[in-house]
């Protein structure tokens, strides 16, 4: 399903997605940055994910459309390699509560704080073994 409205609210740091069926979702920029579909975040296979930290204050500087299937946000921390397909955005929107809870559990399991600088722990927040 393709959103018919995409608005980046800089003040509240949320991306608003509106759909023709009347549904709308508000995805925090931090959430989108943490769940970027890029290889930098997700790795190139299972167990290669890099746990993202220190993203609470990140903002989306620009959003570029990619064909008719995705958007490519550019974040204030320099990250701009994630292509968020319409399908992936809807998945994030519909599962936001569960995904955020999983993220917080991963932080806890790795003994890192949400606001820790990236690379500040001994294992660089890797979620799997290399």
From TrEMBL:
Tell me any Pfam family this protein matches. Answer: GBBH-like_N
Q: Which UniProt keywords apply?
A: Iron, Metal-binding
The UniProt record lists the Gamma-butyrobetaine hydroxylase-like N-terminal domain at: 7-89
* Top-level taxonomic group: Bacteria
Record InterPro entries: GBBH-like_N (IPR010376), GBBH-like_N_sf (IPR038492)
List the protein's name.
Gamma-butyrobetaine hydroxylase-like N-terminal domain-containing protein
